[in-house]
């Protein structure tokens, strides 16, 4: 599993030109689920996200986590994070989990986050063509892998 976490000021996610989800200050988490991933990773990664100290304290240092700032999360499935680019110029996605399995992991991850995060959690629509407009704060972008 690969997660790309971006600290944001705000984010809007559109499907068919209509806002589907939006958040204010917080983080956008893109999740790529591979064939090898399993449910045992979910609590560990949700806890890691909840404890990531990527938000500034009163001294401008990254010392606060999402719960301490009452930040929001937007979780977006993104199979392209599982791309293999070692050969050629066209990415291979054979390492990505099949959609039937990946959506189960994705939905379970949402439930794990809801147990740990005290504020709003928004989601994208699994498998949809989404347009994401975000303002990355910092910029701060963190990659988490299992």
Task: List the main descriptive attributes of the protein structure presented here.
146 residues, 2 helices, single chain, two-stranded antiparallel sheet, alpha/beta
- Order of helix and strand elements from N to C terminus: EEEHEEEHEE
* Overall tally of structural domains: 1
The total count of helices amounts to 2
Alpha carbon gyration radius: 15 Å
Measured by DSSP, the beta-strand proportion falls in 35-45%
As a percent range, the share of helical residues equals 10-25%
What is the CATH level 1 assignment?
Alpha Beta
Task: Tell me the distance between the termini.
Answer: 6 Å
Net shape? globular
Describe this structure in a few short sentences:
The chain is of the alpha/beta class and 146 residues long. The protein has two helices and eight strands; from the N terminus they run E-E-E-H-E-E-E-H-E-E.
Q: What do you see in this structure?
A:
This protein has 146 residues and is of the alpha/beta class. It has one domain (2-145): D-tyrosyl-trna(Tyr) Deacylase, Chain: A (3-Layer(bba) Sandwich), CATH 3.50.80.10. 19% of the residues lie in helices and 39% in strands. The protein has 2 helices and 8 strands; from the N terminus they run E-E-E-H-E-E-E-H-E-E. Strands 1, 2, 3, 6, 7 and 8 form a 6-stranded mixed beta sheet that branches. The chain starts with a strand and ends with a strand. 31% of the residues are buried. The mean pLDDT is 96.
